[in-house]
Amino acid sequence: MTTAATADRAATAAPAVSVRQVSKTFSGRKGQAVTALQDVDLEVAPGEFVSLIGPSGCGKSTLLRVIANLLEPTAGSVEVFGKAADQARRDQDYGIAFQQAGLLPWRTVSANIELPLELHGVGKAKRRARALELLEMVGLADFADHRPDQLSGGMQQRVAIARSLAESPQLLLMDEPFGALDEMTREYMQVELVRICRETGAAVVFVTHSIPESVYLSDRVVVMSPRPGRITEVIDIGLGDRTESLREADTFFTRVTEVREALRGPHAAAQALGVEAR
Amino acid sequence: MSVRTQQRPKVSSDEPDVVKVGRTIAAGARLRPIAMSLLAIAIVIVVWELYKVVGPEDGGEYFGMRLLPRADDVSMPHIWSIFERYWQPDVDVAGGSTVAVAVLQGMAFSLGVAGLGWLIGVVVGLGLAILMQRFRTAESGLLPYVVLSQTVPLVALAPLVVGWGGQLKFFGRPWEPWMSVAMISAYLAFFPVAVGVLRGLQSPAATQVELMRAYAASWWKTLVRLRLPASVPYLLPSLRLAAAAAIIGAIVAEISTGTKGGIGRLIIDYAQAATGDPPKPYTAILGAAVLGLVASALVGFIELALRRYRPVEARG
């Protein structure tokens, strides 16, 4: 008991994500090497919300995939809750969601959420109960037995988020999950995500193109720049409680401006192309 | 809990009605193909008989070439005489069975052989597709041969297969000619399955594949949970093509090897009677055509069983 408890405390004491001196090089066509990430250091505390923002090709999605162990870094090390990234993946220490919901159309909404549990041998009744609980959390309790194609884009994305929470992970990795949604749905989803994070206490690494989105959601915004992909600035947001009125607050706009200027950076404004200033 | 006051995206609550309307349309849509195929058959009969009325008896010869076929009763028997022929004896022996019985027996034999060939072809095709999906080297190494296999003329191949088969023993039993026919049938049937299912196995979106990797799902679990279900929309047309190919393979193999018992053999046997008994060859040819339809209908049942995996046309 005591050893387990100690181990538990040790695990929570470890940072949710620890990226040290990570580089990632892709071998492009004609043998040309493309450096997607160079010497990236990043630490995410448990329960912290960190956004990665930057123009297309700055390696923010690559960094997320390296943390998720979907890609192997060329150099450097990645730890998730003090474990090597591939071990963390095998232990399901993180949940993941992408821009596309990626729901399996032949499964019901509930069965889609159950998929990760099913793959890891959780019993039928137990995983069904968990799916219903999560559907309740994302406000789709009435849609458990619907097919994904009967749902709107925003609802599908909510199912994807519910699925990423299936194993009660303490880390969520999200790659532009709201990128394909309209502005109204997007803001609504942001509010939902803030609430879900509060309820689950999970740390989040959130890749986005949108400056206001990153400011609204995050404790810290990590600004990246391309060729080679690296972190240029880290901005503490510290806006406190996320309410709807926050979107109109002066402090909010100050931070938005700060992130925008960080994105322009000392480099040419051309690098900021591809970032939506909405 | 300020969330509850947030405006949720509107959700339509009238879905049951939509489903109901959908079902009514579906019922109407199901009758339509039947009506259309009946109409198509009627048109063929009308055109055939119309040509017999207006077409030249000895065929139309223009510029020294025969451009129009003969319309006489030897070349083009009346539709009804073809159908009458079914109820007459096969050979002119008292108490002999009718042509209908002979054709049905031939169809059943060929269907059985082609069915076995189809099954072998589907299993082999699926296996090849999975192998090619699993190992990229297998894909680049095997696919050219898979394509090449289909460019060899079947008529040249059939006697060879029968020749090889004649020297084989099969679990202590002699290799029967119908087994060679099934092999040739399988040889044609595996191709659409291998190619179609390979595409299907490769069809899942990058997101879905990454998700399975994020779940630390093994290759096998990814195959069973993701790739195979995703390949069903590609599999179904492949199964249909394979069924048609299996039937054609069986009939051509029977004809070119002279294997007894099937509809293919009947086609050549009856063709030899054409001068004295013009409607007779058409009875077997019609039988072969109906065989294709029967095979297609049988695959239709498989499609019905797998319909939940079919892609959804309209995305909300």
Describe this structure in words.
- The complex is a heterodimer of chains A (278) and B (316).
- Chain A has a six-stranded mixed beta sheet, sandwiched between helices.
- Chain A contains nine helices and ten strands.
- Chain A is of the alpha/beta class and 278 residues long.
- Chain A folds into two domains: 188 residues, P-loop containing nucleotide triphosphate hydrolases (Rossmann fold); 65 residues.
- With 316 residues, chain B is mainly alpha-helical.
- Chain B has two domains: 55 residues, no CATH class; 229 residues, MetI-like fold.
- In chain B, a hairpin with a 2-residue loop joins strand 1 and strand 2.
- In chain B, helix 8 packs parallel to helix 9.
- The radius of gyration of chain B is 26 Å and the shape is globular.
- Chains A and B meet through helix 4 and helix 7 of A and helix 7 and helix 8 of B.
Describe the secondary-structure layout.
The complex is a heterodimer of chains A (278) and B (316).
Chain A: H1 2-13, E1 17-27, E2 33-44, E3 49-53, H2 60-67, E4 75-80, E5 83-84, H3 85-90, E6 94-97, H4 109-119, H5 124-137, H6 153-164, E7 171-175, H7 183-200, E8 203-208, H8 211-217, E9 220-225, E10 230-236, H9 250-264
Parallel strand pairs in A: 3-8, 3-9, 6-7, 7-8
Antiparallel strand pairs in A: 1-2, 1-4, 4-5, 9-10
Helix pairs in contact in A: 4-5, 4-6, 8-9
Chain B: H1 15-54, E1 60-62, E2 65-68, H2 79-86, H3 99-134, H4 136-149, H5 154-165, E3 169-170, E4 173-174, H6 177-201, H7 206-214, H8 219-257, H9 263-271, H10 279-305
Antiparallel strand pairs in B: 1-2, 3-4
